[in-house]
Design a protein that fits this description.
By secondary structure, this protein is an alpha/beta fold. It contains 11 helices and 12 strands. Mean pLDDT is 95; it is low at 326-332.
Length: 332
């Protein structure tokens, strides 16, 4: 992982969130502040409110699309700025180099949750980030059978501090877990290529379906931050989010339950396709989401894309246009 990241050292930890927590604790002290993008992984908010606050560490959230404007948000207490690009569920791509430059100018460090892209698709350290974090449980391990995270740094002194903190908290990984991640690394590029190609095929179909308000897929020209994705990334992934119209809500559960090839789950990146469902867009505290209807995030695996398309076709058929009857009526 250190070689892929272009890092001096990489520390392995028991999960992706352990890597997020460890990085934050190593970088920020009581009386100081950490900034998170409004699109951050949802477990971060309770971590900030219930844990960091108890240690005297303040947290604030910022507009992920702020770019160089972050300079206006920083203050003398800010010691760490997190980026997550694309954002969790809503897929906004951030201007990481501009954010990193603004943070460094004020003496703050930058950490990136780079799980979506992996270091194959985005070299976070080369774009100004100090800590590159990956949930190896997802694309890197690739088979949904191991939990692990990593933190990669270019500064050996930072690595030593992370290593000390992991020892003090008793956080480590086993040889067996490490062997599973090494197995996944051998096929990472092939799997990501296949997942992205299949996702592109499916996205082209989904965007035209009744009931779809918007599809967020960084490779799509209409997706927020697409130009930044083209500038900074060397490829994409197989994850996309579908924002549905309000009127689809009564039929969403039936449609999702009807899927035969998509398991219901949140920890994407394995060989099997997944669907994760929210009744409405995730919490945002800086700016309201663009939509209010249900959201379905699809993670595309290694199945035949034509089989997946047939499965989606029968599921979307249950989302009927208002006035044309419910899903159960159409199926009958």
């Amino acid at each position: 992982m250190a070689r892929l990241e272009g890092a001096a050292r990489t520390l392995a930890l028991p999960s992706g969130f352990a890597a997020i927590a460890m990085t934050t604790l190593a970088a920020v002290s009581p009386g100081e502040e950490v900034l998170f993008p409004d699109t951050t992984y949802d477990t971060v908010r309770p971590f900030a409110e219930r844990f960091l606050a108890g240690l005297g560490i303040a947290s604030r959230y910022y507009d992920p699309m702020i770019g160089a404007g972050l300079a206006e948000v920083l203050d003398e207490r800010t010691r760490l700025v997190w980026v997550e690009s694309p954002g969790s569920m809503t897929m906004e791509v951030q201007d990481v180099p501009a954010i990193a430059a603004a943070a460094h100018a004020r003496g703050a460090m930058v950490a990136a949750d780079n799980t979506w892209a992996t270091p194959l698709r985005f070299k976070a350290l080369a774009h100004g980030v100090d800590f590159s974090v990956c949930a190896l449980s997802k694309y890197v391990a690739g088979h949904s059978d191991v939990m692990m995270g990593s933190v990669s740094v270019a500064d050996v002194a930072l690595y030593r501090k992370l290593k000390d903190y992991s020892r003090f908290l008793g956080l480590g990984v086993s040889a067996d877990e490490s062997s599973l991640v090494l197995r996944g690394l051998e096929t990472l590029a092939i799997r990501m290529d296949r997942a992205e190609q299949s996702a592109r095929r499916l996205v082209d179909w989904v965007v035209a379906q009744p009931g779809v308000a918007e599809v967020r897929f960084p490779q799509l020209a209409t997706s927020p931050g697409h130009a930044l994705w083209r500038r900074d990334f060397t490829g994409g992934a197989g994850l996309f989010s579908v924002f549905l119209e309000e009127w689809t809500r009564p039929a969403v559960a039936e449609a999702v339950e009807s899927l035969q090839l998509f398991a219901i789950g949140a920890s994407w990146g394995g060989t099997r396709s997944l669907a994760a469902v929210l009744d409405r867009p995730p919490l945002r505290t800086v700016a309201p989401p663009a939509h209010t209807g249900p959201v379905v995030r699809f993670s595309i695996g290694l199945e035949d894309p034509e089989d997946l398309l047939r499965d989606l076709t029968q599921a979307f058929a249950r989302l009927t246009v208002p006035g044309q009857g419910g899903g159960a009526q159409r199926r009958a």
